[in-house]
Amino acid sequence: MQQQRPPPTVRAVTIPFADLSDRGKDLSDKIEEGFGRQGLGIVSIADVPGYPELRKRLLRLASRVANLPEEVKKELEDPSSRYNFGWSHGKQKFESGKFDTFKGSYFANPLLNVPTTDDALVTRFPSYCRPNIWPTDDLPELETAFKDLGKLVLEVGLLLAHHCDQYVMNQELGPCAGESLEQTLARSRCHKGRLLYYFPQKFSKQKEDQSISSWCGWHTDYASLTGLTYALFMRKSVEIPCPDSGAGLHIRSRDNQVVKVTFEDDELAYITGETAEILSRGHLRATPHCVKAPSSEDASLVDRSTFALFVQPNWDEKIKIPSEYPYHKELLIPPNETLAYGEYSERILNKHYEGRT
Ligand SMILES: O=C(O)CCC(=O)C(=O)O
Ligand SMILES: [Fe+2]
To answer: Which residue, by CA, sits nearest to atom 8 of ligand 1?
Structure first.
């Protein structure tokens, strides 16, 4: 087979935290460059106070979770939420039906252990409304480490949402024609954290996959903003720099080019999701992305740990699908239908988990 050239590497647009936290500062140019119609869909934030320590504290626990005894992990699973709380491995399906056997995830709401006590809501929106599960006996330090980092990523994400609102307002040349992204996200009770552990390729059950999406398939997130840490790589429990410069997060650009994106290990990155596109009336665009595993021979024992926070509207927020909407066409969501965000995501989950539609 012909050897394909690796995709070019592009540096994410970076905003210093000091600028981001100044609500009066005009960051429209940076937002446009990162998230606008021609942007790659990623912005990283530098010098966030306290972030490097919280990142390391949590990411070092990812392999510990993944290596808990099988019977313990079973207890930490929550099939009723379609594995959207606690431990999940091999249950999710992105991109033409590939199950995520290469990665294990730990999902939790970093703000609220019990988002609601209303049974009707728990039944209707299980992936958001069921309670958190923690390995209290086997890994007690996980809960605090997860919540502390999750809250910080949310705080910074809300500041970023404020500047996104300002950008959209400038584009529309007037007061916001719709809901403010910042206010919608600030009142949500269902932000979701995901601690990810990518198993070393050698140990995965399937044969080595050299494709760009070998560790995580192509998808767009349905949240509004996804906070992403710089991943931690380890070989046999020793932290190492990523051994393959071609591995990691890849994005499909607006003009359909695949690029590998980079940011520094002490920066916190955000990508846009489908509900940022919907709520901003298309001024911000969702970011198609995937993750490539290291492919060189000596990278075979390398694992990858990272954290994503899906900053998203509450389950009952009404969202209106625009008529020109490129995502999830097969779900046949009628254009201009207004549906609750929780309903929208349950329909997508039906597709991602075990193909039930
Ligand atoms: O591992 C990563 O860097 C990205 C994970 C991701 O895209 C997701 O969990 O939705
Ligand atoms: Fe994602």
So the answer is: 308
